[in-house]
Amino acid sequence: MDAAQASSLLRRQIDQHGEPVTLRRVVSSVNHDLPLSAFVRGFKADQITAGVQQGDRSAVLHPDDVVVATWLSGVAMQPGENPDRRVPKKGDKLIVAGRVCNIEAAEGVYLGTALVRINLVVRG
């Protein structure tokens, strides 16, 4: 599967089974919010491992939805931050069904150099 196929497949899944969420980064007490859709699910008992607690959820974002120019307008890159700014970082927030959740882990999934998926572990 190439990057375009993976991206298209994820887009269909999120469009069919996703839910509205808001990605948030707080900088100097200012919320930088980006509404988008995500595929959000709880973890099964056999998926709970070190770093994942009961009640945590998995969220999958389509990288094309994370429009950095909108989400992080005027926000300077921090030392150690992933240079691909579409990938959130620990400490960012994901608002799901009105509930503010902390992003505990974020991973960009790449095929070659193309970011095709963003996986999050959220708590709250």
Structure overview:
15% of the residues lie in helices and 44% in strands. It is an alpha+beta fold and 124 residues long. The model has no long low-confidence stretch (mean pLDDT 89).
Question: Which key terms come to mind for this protein?
Answer:
single chain; 124 residues; alpha+beta; six-stranded antiparallel barrel; globular
Compile the SSE list and pairings.
Layout: H1 3-17, E1 19-27, E2 30-42, E3 57-61, H2 68-71, E4 93-96, E5 99-111, E6 114-123
Antiparallel strand pairs: 1-2, 1-4, 2-3, 3-6, 4-5, 5-6
List unreliable stretches of 5+ residues: none
Strand runs, count? 6
Radius of gyration: 14 Å
Distance between the termini: 35 Å
The SSE order reads HEEEHEEE
Kindly estimate the percentage of residues that lie in beta strands according to DSSP: 35-45%
How many helical elements? 2
Biggest sheet details: 6 strands, antiparallel, barrel
Classify the helix fraction into a percent range.
Answer: 10-25%
Strand order of the largest sheet: 1-2-3-6-5-4
